[in-house]
Description:
The chain contains five helices and four strands. By secondary structure, the protein is α+β, with helices and mostly antiparallel strands. It has a four-stranded antiparallel beta sheet. The longest helix has 19 residues, at 106-124. The protein starts with a helix and ends in a 20-residue tail after the last helix.
Amino acid sequence: TQKQCKFAYRDSAIKKKNLVVLSSIFQLKKGETKIIQSIAKDHREYRKERHPLEYPNAGSVFKNPTGGNSAGYYIDQAGLKGTRSGNAEISTKHANFFVNHGGASSEDISELIRLAKIAVREQFNIELELEIKTLGFPPNHFDA
């Protein structure tokens, strides 16, 4: 049930317990087709303008810190947009997206994660928390 899932901002019991959802049932509300299409179009345009969809990426790398600006804002203000490690780059379009220009390694991405965490901590005293799930790395691999 929704109560059992304990949904919260980018969190849930499913995520905390590393569960996998195999099926689900949704109750949708009927709406006007033109309004729904307009809203969907606005969302697509927003994402296209602000997210680097032209490159492979994992979406938002860090969760947004509570009570302040977004993770992308802090990474941008730290001057890291466009920073590269190998073929991985902190996007020039949205600083919380790390893109692969072709052949980027997991270590390339790891290095950018560490750089962002260090810069944001040093400049803003904010500890960025990963939003992406990683596999095959030791527990403190991304600590900076």
